[in-house]
Each structure stands twice: as C-alpha cells, then as structure tokens.
Amino acid sequence: MVLAxxxxxxxxxxxxxxxxxxxxxxxxAPDGLTEADxxxxxxxxxxxxxxxxxxxxPCRATRRVLADVSGIVPGVAHVEIDAESRLDLVRRxxxxxxxxxxxxxxxxxxxxxxxxxxxxxxxxAALAGAVSHGSSHESSHNPDEM
Amino acid sequence: xxxxxxxxxxxxxxxxxxLALVLAAGSVWPLAATVLLAAQxxxxxxxxxxxxxxxxxxxxLVKSAPKETEDARPPRFAQGVGLAFAVAGLAGYLxxxxxLALGATxxxxxxxxxxxxFGFCLGCETYxxxxxxxxxxxxxxxx
Lengths: 146, 143
Hints:
Strand order of the largest sheet of chain B: 1-2
CATH architecture of chain A: 3-Layer(aba) Sandwich
CATH superfamily of chain A: Glutaredoxin
Number of domains of chain A: 1
Number of helices of chain B: 6
Strand order of the largest sheet of chain A: 1-5-4-2-3
Largest sheet of chain B: 2 strands, antiparallel
CATH class of chain A: Alpha Beta
Oligomer: heterodimer
Structural class of chain A: alpha+beta
Shape of chain B: globular
CATH topology of chain A: Glutaredoxin
Number of helices of chain A: 5
Number of domains of chain B: 1
Helix content of chain A: 25-40%
Distance between the termini of chain A: 52 Å
C-alpha cells in the first residue's frame, strides 16, 4: 500500500509537472469579461487576467512573468484578481486553483487559459494569437510585430 | 511571517517517511502505527500553529540563511489539512475502522510525498476549492 501510494504520487507529480502552466485554447463562448467584471480597464489589444490567493506560492512568480510581458508588449494590460473576494467570478469561470491565467482579446473574450504558473514564452505566444484573434478585422495590426 | 522553503521540503520528507512507516505497520502492528500517527498528528498541530518541530530541527542543522523565503500561511494551512487527515486516520485505528485508518493515512502520505518530491503543496491548492464550497467560512490563519 505504501508503494502503491508512492507510485500514484509519482504519476500525479509527473503529470502535474508536464501540465502545469500549459497555456490552452478556450472554446469560443458568448460571455467574455467586461471592465465591470474585472474592476479594471481592458488592454487595448489584449488583457492578462490572473486569479490569485494569499495561499498561493506560484502566484508571485506568475505576477512577475505577466507584469514583465505586459511591460514588453504594447497594449496589453495585466489585471490581478483576488479569487477569495471574487468568488462569483471564480464560480462563473470554474476556476479550481490559483494561479489561473486567462488571456482576453481586445473585446474581453477569453481565448486562452492556463492553470498553474505559465512560462513567459508561452504567454507571449498566446498573446500573439489573442491579438490576431481580437483584431482580425483590422488589417493594419500585424501580430508578427510582437 | 516568512518560511524557509528548504525547511518546508525537509519537513515534508520526514513526514513522508513517518507516514510511510505508519502505513507499512498498518494492520500488521496496529499499536505502533497508532502511536506513530498520533505523534505525527501532534507535529501537524504544532506546524499549523507555526511551531513545526521538523522545521526547528532543520534550523538547528542548517545554519545558512535561505536565498528566498515564502509566505508562511499556505504551509501552515496545509499542516492543518494534514492534521485533519491524521485525526481521521487515528480515529480509524482507535475505532478499528481499517479502511478509514489506511485511507486517511495514504491520502496524507500522498500529499506529503508530492510536497517532498515535487514541491507541490496540495493542502495549499485545496484552499480555493474549500472557499468555493464554504464561501462564508472563516479559514484565515492568524498571522
């Protein structure tokens, strides 16, 4: 039983290591997030929404990554939401753990999602997708410029 | 309050060994398992109160300062979760409910092992789930 438990732990650990922070596509949904939901303005081109709790070690590192990215890429806002004080949003978006990061396009539609601490390169790649998605009608915006 | 992450990993490793012993003794030598699990429950209680004996042992053994520290509240909350499982397991041993005894101990062992081997704190991650289920509950650990 000891060995079975440790074997199970190893499997869970390896799976988690591989999946943690992976930025995934989100199926298009009619209800995006509004500025009223966020309590903050949407970024001109995209918004990185981070759900955090005080009880969360990787949230601090995630904050650094996202702040960094929103500093590098023009028109991208970083909004951090305290999950405990916004349990309404947590339930609506089915957020199971922190940090969870959502990538919104310019109109607030959720296009990507990552649970766990995401890697910077993956966030940048996701943003490239979000920006082209949100501004597909504007030919002047070229996502390659990122 | 800040915690030394190395001390937390060290504590998780000792906890893993103790809980593995409890589980191995299990039904073969229930008295030893019960005593050991009671001792670990006490350690969890002290840890939840911010007085982890394993952490103090680490501090006594390793003098160097940590490169970075982390918030002490999540691991303390997780020690509280560990305590809940240890108490459930203890109740199982004392009342002769073997599936409860082994199940609760195995769950605690799994969490301790994930923390020791991979640095994942399951207790910390369940916090938001608990808050979703019990929005009104006060789960704050005093600073």
